[in-house]
Amino acid sequence: MKDVLWNSLIASLQTDQCVLVLGPDIPAAPKEITATGGSEAISLRDAFCQDLSKQLEEEGQTVNERLLFAVAQQYDDHPAFSTVNGPS
């Protein structure tokens, strides 16, 4: 990226003229240390999926599918996490 474009982007961010949006594959946090001594990065999408799965499991739910769309649907369907009131 040319310096003039980079500086324009930085100025726009600083003056609230644009919003920085990061994709789902950005590293969220280092994963466990591997057997070879390195570490694997976990993506933001995978970290979010793990968090939702953990919350479901704490509610006694079995999470069979570890893809974000499936876990998010299961989370949305669970009454403990519902933000919509049922019939009164």
Note down, in words, how this protein is organized.
The chain starts with a helix and ends in an 11-residue tail after the last helix. It has a two-stranded antiparallel ribbon with strand order 1-2. A hairpin with a 5-residue loop joins strand 1 and strand 2 (39-43). It is 42% helix and 14% strand. It is α+β, with helices and mostly antiparallel strands. Helix 2 runs parallel beside helix 3 (68-77).
Keywords summarizing the entry:
88 residues; alpha+beta; 42% helix
Class derived from helix and strand content? alpha+beta
Shape: flat
The proportion of strand residues reads 5-15%
Number of domains: 1
Please trace the helix and strand order, writing H or E for each element.
HEEHH
Please state the average pLDDT score: 82
Low-confidence stretches: none
Tell me the distance between the termini.
57 Å
**Radius of gyration from the alpha-carbon trace, in angstroms:** 19 Å
In the sheet with the most strands, the strands line up as 1-2
Helix count equals 3
Helix content: 40-55%
What composes the largest sheet?
Answer: 2 strands, antiparallel
**How many β-strand runs?**
2
